[in-house]
TrEMBL record:
It comes from Paraburkholderia caledonica. NCBIfam families: PRK15049.1. This is L-asparagine permease. Residues 40-468 form the Amino acid permease/ SLC12A domain. Pfam families: AA_permease. Signal peptide: none annotated. InterPro entries: AA-permease/SLC12A_dom, Amino_acid_permease_CS. Belongs to the amino acid-polyamine-organocation (APC) superfamily. Amino acid transporter (AAT) (TC 2.A.3.1) family. PROSITE patterns: AMINO_ACID_PERMEASE_1 (PS00218). It is a multi-pass membrane protein. GO terms for biological process: amino acid transport; transmembrane transport. GO terms for cellular component: plasma membrane.
Amino acid sequence: MNSRMQKDESVRQDVVKTDHRAWLESHEAGYHKAMGNRQVQMIAIGGAIGTGLFLGAGARLQMAGPSLAIVYLVCGAFSFLILRALGELVMHRPSSGSFVSYAREFLGEKASFVAGWMYFLNWAMTGIVDITAVALYMHYWGAFGQVPQWVFALIALCLVAGMNLIGVRWFAEMEFWFALIKVAAIVIFLIVGGAILGSGGRVAGHATGIHLIASNGGLFPHGLMPALVLVQGVVFAFAGVELVGTAAGECKDANAVLPRAINRVIWRIAVFYVASVALLVCLMPWSAYKAGQSPFVTFFSALGVPGIGSMMNIVVLSAALSSLNSGLYSTGRVLHSLSMGGSAPKLFARMSAQSVPYTGIVVTVAIYVIGVVLNYLVPSSVFELVLNVASLGIISTWGFIVVCQMKFRSAVARGEVQDVTFRMPGAPFTSWLTLLFLLGVLVLMAFDYPNGTWTVASIPVLAVLLVIGWKMTSARARRAVLPPTIPSIALTQNVLETEQD
């Protein structure tokens, strides 16, 4: 009798788990699986390479010298761990809602609300910076010097928005070519720089070699503290690596493609960031590089290569457009996922005939138009106004990814979900270590006066806004959430909490 009851209960649990998964997968209805391996691989590369390398490395070399390579390596290693945590969740259930959908499953709708809107805040602010960067890069060429900055910002916005609204295939193709330009630029530098270093050549009157590090103050010419402070800036250079998780929901064969794409990220970071910086400081003294100019332009200019400034300007222009492209893609999907869970207005759940969550993209474009207006009113101040706010969004996002991975492992141990073979290496130790690292980044931001200090000080204000937002949407979220019969502790608790509200 007891065995019969146990068998019936087991069958009931299996049925409930199937309904649970079916409900979650219903949130993905309407998306086309249009991305192939070629495009996903390049999206993974593009997310790991941005203007932080091409343009920001010059200023960072001035601050920390050759130790920048070590900082890139450490931050890159944690970025890889975060991607592996995300990969574990993707193998469990590919979702265009990415970590927002996983937060809903393992932490409840309230956590999903916070994760989604903080990520939206990140890309909303970053997009304004990106269109500003595009306008600034266009002014590099004298022929465009008289064109107002806001005109270029508007043109860039219309171009990228149009590609995103047409369909995911167009987004993926555009991102493929943007990433290819960035990779080609670094590969050319590595080949040329490596050949000069290997042959013992001279650059700008200096004999190349590792002795340039020792003879110019060593690895830490300004001490250890500048390198530590630089960590919080370098982390944001890797912002965007998590985009590969969002793309998984529209990938033709996510289970086969995503593990390869994620595993290759650490090698790309090692080559593109660490090897590039190490090569730069072995070709010229680190003090030869300066803020406001790409270190790659500095190097090629010293060789007397004609037109190198224009070539590199095309590269950083591609990097800015790539980031803008990714922002529109991801916010549309995140807002759709929030809407499906009741944490955003219903209109964000609408899909076009091309399977594009167009309302979320249009709303994001409207926010970016504010960036165009800012380019008209205060063109020199736009970066400082919004860039630091975006930083909180990426720390929050990465934190939610790791916490969801930890909750997933707990659910596996309880037998509530099926295990996966693609796991985060070293977990749970590496999970806790990554969370500690993200907390350390937040602390370092607080010491970066004035911008970082004020950014951290704004956290209570953001918390109040999130509480108000949740109060406004919790009634709809309560209606959209799963019934408490589903064996998910987080979701059951969420129902009880919202009823108490």
